[in-house]
Amino acid sequence: MSLYRKLIIAALLLTFGVVALGAYVRLSDAGLGCPDWPGCYGKITPHHASEHISQALAQNPEGPVSHAKAWKEMVHRYFAGTLGLLVLAIAVLGWKHRHETRGSPVLAIVLLGLIVFQALLGMWTVTELLKPFIVTGHLIGGMATLALLTWLWQRECGPSLAGMADVRALRVWGVLALAAVAVQIVLGGWVSTNYAALACTDFPTCHGEWVPEMDFEHAFALHRELGMDASGNFLSLQALTAIHWMHRLWALAVLVLAGTAAFKLARQRGLCVLGALLGVLLLAQIGMGIANVWFSLPLALAVAHNAGAALLLAALVVINFKLFRMR
Questions:
Q1: DSSP track, 275-292
Q2: What is the rounded CA–CA span in Å between residue 72 and residue 39?
Q3: Where are the domains of the chain?
Q4: Which of 88, 153, 172, 229 could serve as a FRET partner for 262 with CA atoms 20 to 30 Å apart?
Q5: Which pTM was predicted?
Q6: Using one digit for the tens of pLDDT, what is the confidence trace for 244-272?
Q7: Is 128 assigned a catalytic role?
Q8: Is the peptide bond before 105 cis (omega within 30 degrees of 0)?
Q9: Integer Cα distance of 99 and 70 in angstroms
Q10: Catalytic residue among 51, 62, 73, 213, which?
Q11: Are the C-beta atoms of 102 and 79 separated by less than 8 Å?
Q12: At residue 169, does pLDDT exceed 60?
C-alpha cells in the first residue's frame, strides 16, 4: 500500500498547485484564453492553435484571447487533468485494497465523483462565459477536493493518535473555525468572480464610511451574467460594495472563531504546534487581505491570498481530524 499513500500525497500537493493556478488564471483574466473545452480551438496545445489565436487577437486586440492567456488556461487544464488521473488511480487502489487501508474506500470514490463534477464545472466556466455562480462553484469544488484529500492523507498516512490527551472539549472550536473559514472561502470566491476586490479602496472603512451604501439584492443574485444583475443591467458599485463588505465583515467572525481555536490548541499538549500554525496562517491571511486593498490588488499578492486560504483550510481539516480521532 506504499503506492496508494504516495499517490495520495502527490494528489494533495498537486491539488494545492491546481487551486493556486486557478486563482492565477482567474486573476490574470485568462479564464477565456481558450474559448472552447477541453482543447484550445480543438487543438491539444495553444501552439497547435496558434493561427486561430492570432486571428482572434487581430479581430479584438483587447479581448479575452491571446497567446499568453491561452497557455495559462491550458497549463491549468493539464494540471487538473493529471490530478484527475491521480484521483482515479487512488479510487481504484482504494477499492482493490479496501481490506488493507485504514478506512472505507467510499471517501476515495466520493473524491473521484467530485473530480468528474469539477471537470464539468470547468467546461461550463468556459461555455457559459464565466458566470459568477459557476466560477465560484468551481473554486469551491477545488477547495472541497483539497479538504477531502487532506482528510484521506491524515487517515492513511498520519501517525497513530493512541495515548493522546482527551480533547473532546476542543472539538466544537475546531468545527466552528472550519465552518467559518469555509464560509469565508465562498464569500472570497464571490468577491473574486465578480471582480469586487477593489470595490472598497480604503481600509478599515469603505468609501470613507463604516457602513457604506450597498445593494444586497443584486449583489447576491446567483443566476446572472458576469458584470450584470439579474435584469441584465450593469452591476452597480453599491452591489459590488456589498459583496466586498460582506467578505470583510465575515473576516471578523473568522478572526474570533479561528483565533480562539488557535489559542486553545496552543495550550493543549500534543496540539500546540498545530495551534501555533493556525494562528500564523490566520494572521498572514488577514494581513494579505488588507494589503490587497492598500496596494490595489497586485497579482502575486492576490494569488498568495488564495493560496493562503487553501493552507488555512487544510490546516483546519488536519486539526479536526485529530480532534475527532483522539480518545
A1: HHHHHHHHHHHHHHHHHH
A2: 13
A3: 1-158, 163-327
A4: 153
A5: 0.95
A6: 999 999 999 999 999 999 999 999 988 99
A7: no
A8: no
A9: 45
A10: 73
A11: no
A12: yes
